[in-house]
Amino acid sequence: MSYDHNNIFAKILRNEIPCNKIYEDEFVLSFHDINPQKKIHALVIPKGNYIDLDDFSLNATSEEMVGLLKGINIVAKKLGISTEVGEGYRALANIGDHGGQEVPHFHFHLFGGEKVGKMVE
Ligand code: 5GP
From edge to edge, which strands make up the β-sheet containing 40-46? Predict the structure, then answer.
């Protein structure tokens, strides 16, 4: 499968559609999910065109990988949910059809601001 340049997150990255931005740097963009499932529901996406975690693991540079992990921590801190400043959160990536992935641009969900419940329902 090749990367679909018309997916919704690609359009957000190109500023073709708006987002409620939380953080941006060289490697990541983070914004609030349009349909939050918990009190805090943020998305963190790499700026590179990767479909899912497998694509990212196989093809991203080491700098992009570090940048994504660091970006998640920066966003969690900004939102007050990292364990340094808050009570913790869940980072989750859906991968492919069985994983329930809807948008084919790799992203992490960050859920927090309350107890997020069972891992899988
Ligand atoms: P997935 O199921 O692919 O892991 O998650 C996709 C997420 O993107 C969903 O939680 C959905 O609510 C969110 N989403 C879909 N379209 C938009 C949009 O246009 N803007 C924002 N901020 N989030 C979106």
Answer: 21-24, 28-32, 40-46, 108-112, 89-92
